[in-house]
Write a structure and sequence with these properties.
heterodimer, A: 111 residues, mainly alpha, 4 helices, 81% helix, B: 118 residues
Chain lengths: 111, 118
């Protein structure tokens, strides 16, 4: 049953992100980005991680961020017609960056 | 160089989210968590997507990917591959939920545009 709230948490975050973030920026420029960060990402966090909609089955943290990425990428590729090949190259670079960040964070535990 | 921007932007965002955010929520509870969203995502979004050091010349790749991977791999570096394998069920459901949410939103956007132009 943990899958239901986990699915819902991921769904709601990606749904809000896709519908609202761009609109905030369109309406208010870069300040809109800050507002969206709080109103959308912060608020979604209170649901997914604060209240705990996303159930963690293991010790490796699964952030709501994964849902955000999946929703925005697929919407861009499947509905907006974004180039998947170029997108995949950017995905690989983002993965490298993520692993680099993860490694640096790991070294904190060695202090 | 544009790919270096993506790598650095993702790494920096992941580092902030996966350490400072927890510190805020640890100290100030759920309100701290919300506030962390505002200041961390606000500044990281500005860097990666508004200024644009995170390359995006194709289907949209949000800094969120690097952020998620940073957290996931940090725990694997620290505690071994097994914790990653144990978390795969959550990861799968979160990705599928997110995918459905994003597509649903995009389809609703399309239908809203259609009804405006009628």
């Amino acid at each position: 049953m943990w899958m239901v709230s986990t699915f819902a948490g991921g769904f709601i975050f990606a749904f809000m992100l896709r519908l609202l973030f761009g609109k905030y920026v369109e309406e208010w420029g870069s300040i809109g980005g800050w507002m969206a960060a709080g109103m959308i990402v912060g608020t979604a966090w209170t649901l997914t991680h604060g209240v705990g909609f996303i159930y963690q089955t293991g010790g490796a943290w699964v952030d709501q961020a994964f849902a955000g990425f999946a929703g925005l990428f697929l919407a861009s590729a499947a509905v907006d017609g974004g180039c998947v090949k170029k997108g995949c190259i950017n995905i690989i670079m983002a993965l490298i960056g993520g692993i680099l960040g993860g490694f640096i964070l790991y070294t904190l535990t060695l202090h | 160089m544009k790919h270096v921007g993506t790598i650095l932007g993702s790494a920096i965002a992941g580092i902030f989210v996966m350490s400072v955010w927890g510190a805020f929520s640890g100290a100030y509870g759920i309100a701290g968590g919300w506030f962390a969203g505002l200041i961390i995502i606000g500044s990281m979004w500005y860097l990666n997507h508004y200024l644009g050091i995170h390359n995006n010349d194709g289907a949209f790749v949000d800094m969120a990917l690097g952020i998620g991977v940073a957290g996931f791999t940090r725990d694997m570096f620290t505690n071994g591959i097994q914790v990653g394998l144990d978390s795969l069920p959550t990861l799968a459901v979160v990705l599928v939920g997110g995918a459905c949410g994003g597509i649903a939103a995009a389809l609703i956007q399309k239908s809203m545009k259609r009804s405006v132009s009628k």
